[in-house]
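Aim 2, interim progress: modelling of the protoporphyrin IX containing FE-bound target.
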Amino acid sequence: MNKKTSSRKDLLVLTASFIVIAVSALWMFLSGTFSVSLAADTKVAWHMVRSSGIVAYVLLLGSTIWGLIISAQFVKNWSPGPVSMTLHSTISWLALVISLIHALLLLFDDYFTYTLGDLFLPFTGPYRPEAVGLGTLAFWGIVAVTLSFPFRAWMGHRAWKTLHYVSYVAFTLVSLHGLFAGTEGTHIGLRLLLGGGLFGVTLLLGLRVWKAQSRDKSRTHEAIAAG
Ligand code: HEM
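Predicted structure of the complex, ligand included:
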């Protein structure tokens, strides 16, 4: 891609972003969002705990799916390795930060009194400790995997990859956490998101394993043929 085409593309992306921001702001203004007083809502913290949980989940789902797509080499022809990895680690960091905000917001909840210990020691909190504990365990798993990104070279590829398996466990725990800890775990939208997320990740994982096995098989055949 030459320089002229690339700066025209940048300009297009920038203009499109401005249009999206302007339309969103106009829509919020017209629908009266700015005239609602946050202080008047006694459940603000609770709403924010829930919404940040959903955003964190979507980010984690995105990162897990993108990681599987990279490792199955589905995009190697059009997305350069370093770009794919940067995107993968950036989404993971975002998921980690939003998960942290999601947990910390519980300290402002009026209904249950949470301490820092309740948030970060699994199965100790005042509300549905088992289901919330799964979220805490998943959080520590996400911390371990995300923090390992900058240490990939130092750890060695094999150890880094082995640690990365924790992300599947964390993803499964978080899906169960959302389903059983959420006050609206029975809501069809939440069920579709969590169920669809689990289904999509399992499907991609199956494809990834199948692709690795067929690659190994063809290598063995090549080795036998070469004598
Ligand atoms: C220290 C770790 C965590 C704690 C203490 C925690 C706590 C909670 C609590 C108390 C709820 C119930 C909120 C309610 O509906 O009343 C909840 C829901 C939820 N959490 Fe977490 N969580 C943690 C980690 C995570 C992580 C890592 C994710 C995702 C990446 C996540 C995603 C969700 C989702 C999707 C819900 C359901 C929201 C809804 O009901 O609409 N949580 N969490």
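DSSP finds nine helices and no strands in the chain. The pocket of protoporphyrin IX containing FE is lined by residues 46, 49-50, 53-54, 56-57, 60, 95, 99, 102-103, 106, 119-120, 127, 132, 135-136, 138-139, 142, 174, 177-178, 181-184, 190 (CB under 6 Å).
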